[in-house]
Design goal:
Layout lengths: L1 E2 L8 E17 L2 H13 L4 H25 L3 E13 L2 E15 L1
Parallel strand pairs: 1-3
Antiparallel strand pairs: 2-4, 3-4
Length: 106
Amino acid sequence: MIVVTTESIPGRRVVKTLGLVKGNTIRARHVGKDILAGLKGLVGGEIIEYTKMVAESREQSVDRLVEEAEALGANAVVGLRFTTASMMQGAAELLAYGTAVIVEEE
């Protein structure tokens, strides 16, 4: 499965557009990680616990998007985008979305 943020794929042409596909995950913060993050905030630097959580969320969202695209018969997703939304205090959604397509070599 080819997944790109662009609207086209060099060397390929879109022969069929199958429609919108998406994948999301909602993650809640962990109290222990919040304490570590608060301490890190005092001294500065990267909050590794949150970086890891966001990276895992992004990967899970893309995996779900790819599953949906494959179920439609796609071999590529173009126009991949990410968005986030606060669901409640301490929890956020990460949504990946794009257009499922069938591409062929030019």
